[in-house]
Amino acid sequence: MSPFLQLTLSLVVILIAAKAAGYLSVRLGQPSVLGELLVGLMLGPTLIDLTHLPFISDSHLGEVIAQLGDLGVLLLMFIAGLELHLSELARDTRISALAGVFGSLLSLSAGWAVSRAFGFENTPALFLGLAIAATSVSISAQTLMEMKVLRSRVGLGILGAAVFDDILAIFLLSAFLAISAGGNGLGSIAWIIARMLIFLILSAGFGFVALPRLLHQVAALPISQGPLTLAIVVMLVYGLAAELIGSMAAITGAFLAGLMFARTPEKKIFEAGVLSLGYSLMIPVFFVAIGLNINLRALPLNALWLLLAAAGAAMLAKFTGAGLGSRLGGFTWREAGQLGAGMVPRGEVSLVVSAVGLRLALMTATEFSVVVGVVVISTLVTPPLLHTLFHRSAAPRSPDLVTIEEPGVSREKEVR
Q: Which of 92, 248, 238, 76 is nearest to 155 (CA)?
């Protein structure tokens, strides 16, 4: 088969398996994302190794699927931003900031302490703590959308805290590398902060001033799906700008793009198209691709105890730190527990930080495998944990929200 036909066959298998596993997961009382993550592990090198079967000859197939998955997570975070209003997200900024900062710092400290207990030197122990400190909110966002609580007070708090968490994680990594390299460390740190501020100012300025006018003009043009195309282009540009200008994760840029589009009256014109593209193709590929890139069988046995200790410390520290931060900000204990659970998963940021450490010899291959294991465990634990906490006691919902049904998706809309 040609490389294109191999990709086509792989996508057929991935989509059927993802939807079937998601359906089974829902029937068992769990979010569909849990089934998609588990079937990804089964299709990956841990069990089946889909991209290296005997009839697969394209050595780049796994990379192509991973890149499609990267587009899927951008769409997922864009949709999460599209479901919100900026005023809602900014309503509890103090809670978000405290939860994000406390969760990150306590996770960093826990990772450092566990590493030191296993005999690590101070510098690699600190770097391992950095690697497991960053939250990946995409898993929580999908789970919250499935449970129709994304726009609850806790859902908004989780998304806001994740933004602060992402900024702090990148800042701490940059500061660590700048100080380790010597020279003008303070100047490097100041430049990182300046880049973040430049990105946020530019993205807000474009989103508030130019985007509504541009979208209105495009909607009036006699072209097919013009607003939808513009939405996708702006989402990609925001993702690029977040990485290249702001030194932040691309998913943060996609989320901000969604927030900007949520303010526009034309949102209803292209929203259904974004949802269809995302949930029919790109987002399932993202969740399955997580497992396709992870080989649990390659984890050295001598690192098993370190993995279990690091995973337990990382999840407990994030749950406790983010929960306590939100409690200090004004959440009830129940809401604080729910927010802490939503901040538990690790993902792409942790893997990026680990890859940097591996390249700079600040982390060994075994330690990198440990971080991968932490990502897997925390990712699998989060959906059922959120499901249990939100259903054990009904989460507070905004009084101006009702649930409407569209083919394949249930979402909350604001009644005006």
A: 92
Q: Decide if pLDDT at 18 tops 90.
A: yes
- Residue 181: band (very low, low, confident or very high) from pLDDT cuts 50, 70, 90: low
Contact 328, 100 (CB under 8 A): no
Q: Are 73 and 141 within 8 A, CB to CB?
A: no
Q: Per the structure block, which two tokens stand in for 96?
A: 């978000």
User: How much is the CA Rg of the chain, to the nearest whole Å?
Assistant: 21
Give the pairing type, strands 409-414 and 401-406.
antiparallel
> Average pLDDT of 134-150?
86
Lowest mean pLDDT among 163-167, 185-189, 314-318: 185-189
Q: Are 316 and 337 in contact (CB under 8 A)?
A: no
Closest CA to 78 of 203, 232, 288: 232
User: What is the CATH number that goes with domain 72-277+297-414?
Assistant: 1.20.1530.20
How far, in Å, CA of 42 to CA of 18, rounded? 11
Residue 336, pLDDT > 90, answer yes
What secondary structure, in 3-state letters, does the chain show? Answer: CCHHHHHHHHHHHHHHHHHHHHHHHHHCCCCHHHHHHHHHHHHCCCCCCHHHCCCCCCCCHHHHHHHHHHHHHHHHHHHHHHCCCHHHHHCCHHHHHHHHHHHHHHHHHHHHHHHHHCCCCHHHHHHHHHHCCCCCHHHHHHHHHHCCCCCCHHHHHHHHHHHHHHHHHHHHHHHHHHHHHCCCHHHHHHHHHHHHHHHHHHHHHHHHHHHHHHHHHHHHCCCCCHHHHHHHHHHHHHHHHHHHCCCCCHHHHHHHHHHHHHCCCCHHHHHHHHHHHHHHHHHHHHHHHHHHCCCHHHCCHHHHHHHHHHHHHHHHHHHHHHHHHHHHHCCCHHHHHHHHHHCCCCCHHHHHHHHHHHHCCCCCHHHHHHHHHHHHHHHHHHHHHHHHHHHHCCCCCCCCEEEEEECCEEEEEECC
Contact 384, 201 (CB under 8 A): no
Answer yes or no: are the C-beta atoms of 261 and 234 closer than 8 Å.
yes
